[in-house]
Design brief:
8 helices; mainly alpha; 0% strand; 80% helix; single chain
């Protein structure tokens, strides 16, 4: 028996039953939350559009391939495979762009290769920093991020370096 299939429906039923026991207007509250959600989507849509457009232009222009050629002599002696550079570059900006790069890595290097495993760990160890900042800060109207961006990028850089290192040490 697969219990996982029943978790979400059970949670929804418990929430609705609890609201009904407290005599709350369940449907009206649902509609109010949906209205607020749509408002938030319209607030953050320009930021999302700008990020998606920038990532598409970067990939389509060939600039990404040019950058890989420039940084390869620096990355190889450090033990960081140049094939992972596009993922490291796009991951803080776009989750969908990073997934497209990850798919390219899987197709060219293989899922079970060192580079494929390191890319998988990198995807799980890092965040779409600029997307998250645009969404969370934009939804509450904060325009000055102060130390958020440098700290978040430092965390991403650490996650990327540790993804390669841990894959090398643990996965060979």
């Amino acid at each position: 028996m697969n219990i996982g299939v029943y978790v979400i429906p059970s949670a929804l039923l418990l929430i609705i039953a609890n609201a009904m026991l407290k005599r709350l207007p369940v449907f009206e509250l649902f509609l109010q939350g949906a209205r607020q959600g749509i408002g938030a989507v319209f607030k953050i849509m320009p930021s999302i559009l700008a990020l998606v457009c920038a990532v598409s232009m970067l990939r389509s222009s060939g600039l990404l391939d040019f950058l890989i050629g420039l940084v390869s002599p620096i990355l190889q002696p450090l033990g960081f495979p140049p094939e992972l550079f596009p993922l490291a570059l796009l991951r803080p900006v776009s989750g969908s762009g990073a997934l497209a790069v990850l798919d390219d890595i899987y197709k060219s290097c293989g899922v079970d290769s060192f580079i494929g495993r390191a890319a998988s760990v990198m995807m799980g160890s890092t965040e779409t920093t600029f997307y998250a900042i645009a969404i969370y800060y934009g939804s509450v109207g904060i325009s000055k991020t102060r130390h958020t961006v440098p700290c978040a990028l430092a965390a991403d850089f650490t996650g990327m370096a540790m993804a390669v290192l841990s894959t090398r040490l643990l996965g060979g």
